[in-house]
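Researcher: I'd like a structural prediction for the single chain below. Treat it as a standalone chain; there are no partners to consider.
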Amino acid sequence: MEKPKRHYIIKTLYHMKERCYNKDVKGFENWGGRGITICDEWLNNSEAFVSWALANGYQRGLTIDRIDNDGNYCPENCQWVTIKENNQHRRSTRFFAINGETKNLQQWCDIYGLPRSMVEKRLSLGWDIEKALNTPKKKRDTESLVGKKFGRLTVVRFVGVGSGRKSRFECVCDCGNTVVVDRQKLLSGHTKSCGCIRQEKCAKISAFKRD
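Model: Treating it as a single chain, here is the predicted structure.
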């Protein structure tokens, strides 16, 4: 049987108290260590907190958020939000203004439909926020190698992205075997066959030893 909402609300209050008043709790310096406290109404009366939570939109999966990150836990400074929204409201969150409108980086990335990791990398390279958001994502090259030959391998088609975001291509070897190879290994000459070249070399060495 699913536990009632009251159980999870009380659990939230417990963790609030731990963050604000227990110096042994990991991360205490980000709450109690900064002087963040819980109002007397909630601290001394858990039912008051439960009543406020139920009257102000509490649902399973939501987390409590302080509207003013430097303010205390109290009715006028708290709201229930998703974990994603809560993460966007951290002190470390970066905010940017574009055309007079200020939003955090994740919000701008959502609006422009770009992955945050890519935008952050662009910003780390010294790009300004508007250039980072307005420059289209570079399209992956999936066609230029098709039909070309590298050693004994002829590239047939792009098959997807492997580890490290590397493009992978299906190739047919002169011996008839099919193999999938990373783009960089083809261009660098690292891979020139399905493995038959190595097998032939091993066979020659074995034959030489027998002679």
